[in-house]
Amino acid sequence: MKRLAWIEEHPIGIARSLATGLITATVMALALPLSASAKPTTPLTTEDARHLLNRSGFAASEAEIQAFKGLTRAQAAEQILLTAREVAVSNPPAWTKEPILPASKLRDMTREEREAELRLNAERAFDLREWWFREMLITPSPITEKMTLFWHNHFATSQQKVRYTKLMYDQHVLLRKYALGNFGVMLHQMARDPAMLIYLDNANSRREQPNENFAREVMELFTLGEGNYTEQDIKQMARAFTGWSIDRETGEFMFRRGIHDTGEKVIFGKRANFEGDQALDLLLKRPETAQFITRKLWKEWISPVPDEAEVNRLAAIYRDSGYNTAKLMRAMLSSDAFYAPENRATLIKSPVEFVVGTLKQFEIEPRNLRPFVLASALLGQNVFSPPNVKGWPGGEAWINSASLLGRKQFVDRIFSAEDRMEAMMNALDEMAVRSGTPPPPGRAARQQRNVERAMNAMKWDLDGWASRFNDGKGLEGAAGLATVVLAMPPREMPRGNAPADWVRALVADPAYQLK
Known about the structure:
By secondary structure, this protein is an all-alpha fold. It contains 27 helices and 4 strands.
């Protein structure tokens, strides 16, 4: 099968070509076939089911694929959305039930006590990341976690600035609650979210000096998109949110009426004494909001380049439903565009999808997830710490020479080394040095016992997992495995009769980076 230049033996060549956009042309030529006469009522093929489940989750098992095979597009989308959850399955860390440290107590602390508190918050941040990775692995509703991850990047907030890890957890709970719920309600709640108020500096915004950060980002990044508002709109909207603050003793939202601007404001040409909630309602009434969110979801779920006519059609569904995200996703997941050949295998797995998907795909169940949290961070996606208010750019930005080599190293350590966990931990340290990201504090002293705990906890039999595909049919068995593991046919079909070797060959294929 002919392939373009981006599929080269040397991984740097692959990364360079991915970065220049050749991936799209390659995928269009190689995407799995779909009948031109297919309709929403046409039963899903094996390839259709795999495509749907891998896009809506982290990795699909052969059993899951077969269970969805034969359903119509509408039935399959409904089946996935019926699993939606508002709360996590796993219990969060115990400290999430504790109140935050009051500001008055923090002021009375010595320097050593403050430093200890910072270390405690940093350790809790690791706990929070591990807990979410665990939830992604065990959840009965992968689409809930995928949507929570999407909104986490949409309403990007970083633990480094917020500092109170408890507030980051509370925001996370809010994102999951509305992951497939009502966007309008979520927007109103996020405007009051203490972590967001701290991150975008609105907690100190007052009528004498309105802070414009939140007003700007709520229009540019959360609703309308760039170019659909004026600087005057930003200034006037910032006045509407003065006094929206937090109680420094409890960490809860507080409206400080005494510093709120009660004067008349002009937003989008409308004149009134707008309060914060009324200003948000103005944003929700604008057609650009539904279009902006739909376009962003398209890039996450369908293809890197949106079809604007389809975006407008789906955005109308979203707006007419009153911003019911589940209804939008139902329409999107059953659309012709979602199943179109040219849109398959066009998206690059994010580091979280890559790491969690590998663990889930191959049924690896480590009790210690910290090495995998670190792997995702060093590959470019450290959850609860996006690079800035715009979040992770995603797409081809996930792949460069360093990150692609890091991904290759990650799977090499898991599928090749007998002492795979120790080798992987060492590899993570090497990646950290190359990327300029220092290992966590105290890493050198704790590494050996962490390695031992992780190795003892990670009981996984590659040969046993892969043997289910060893039907004695040689290439046919390898082809069946490739259909489960890859989003598109491999560069070269694995040969031989050892299924474990098939796995190693398939995860090394560039197609393993795609979804």
